[in-house]
Amino acid sequence: IMDDWPGYDLNLFTYPQHYYGDLEYVLIPHGIIVDRIERLAKDIMKDIGYSDIMVLCVLKGGYKFCADLVEHLKNISRNSDRFVSMKVDFIRLKSYRNDQSMGEMQIIGGDDLSTLAGKNVLIVEDVVGTGRTMKALLSNIAKYKPSMVKVASLLVKRTPRSDGFRPDYAGFEIPNLFVVGYALDYNEYFRDLNHICVINEHGKEKYRV
């Protein structure tokens, strides 16, 4: 999605009434998100669908993308001649930044990560921005010696602060905008919005904490 993409007029779609006046425009309509995820699932199954997959969902923003992606993966598996078992686990990341580096990152939740040894792991994330968090997570997971690790991110932001990390599977590459909807939040609001939208200044002010 190019930097000068004007998006879709909000009046073309339905969205929760309590957000009227809080959004600039629709960046990616829900239907397009769903279609793109179906294609990502097909690509993932083609690459790693020959053996069981351990899905690690990064909360909170990744849960909707993860649920839809896993549903599509299961559909492909059901309709193929080889059944692929999928386990899903959920983690949250807490990073402590200092000026110099990412510092320590704490992984909260999830089963004992030593169970990832020898497994094909698919990390599912909502947005990759600078890439630092994901790189720190990958180096953390590498300690447990999984057989393979792939990363699927719904969005990749073009940001000048990016360290060049690219997920193996990306839904959409977007400009460096603050987006909400489809489980992406602003101070816990907008998770109930189906489309991915750009929040306006009024919305930021209204839900500021």
UniProtKB/TrEMBL annotation:
It comes from the Eukaryota. Residues 31-186 form the Phosphoribosyltransferase domain. This is Hypoxanthine phosphoribosyltransferase. NCBIfam families: HGPRTase. Signal peptide: none annotated. InterPro entries: HGPRT, Hxn_phspho_trans, PRTase-like, PRTase_dom. PANTHER family: HYPOXANTHINE-GUANINE PHOSPHORIBOSYLTRANSFERASE, PHOSPHORIBOSYLTRANSFERASE DOMAIN-CONTAINING PROTEIN 1. GO terms for molecular function: hypoxanthine phosphoribosyltransferase activity; metal ion binding; nucleotide binding. Its cofactor is Mg(2+).
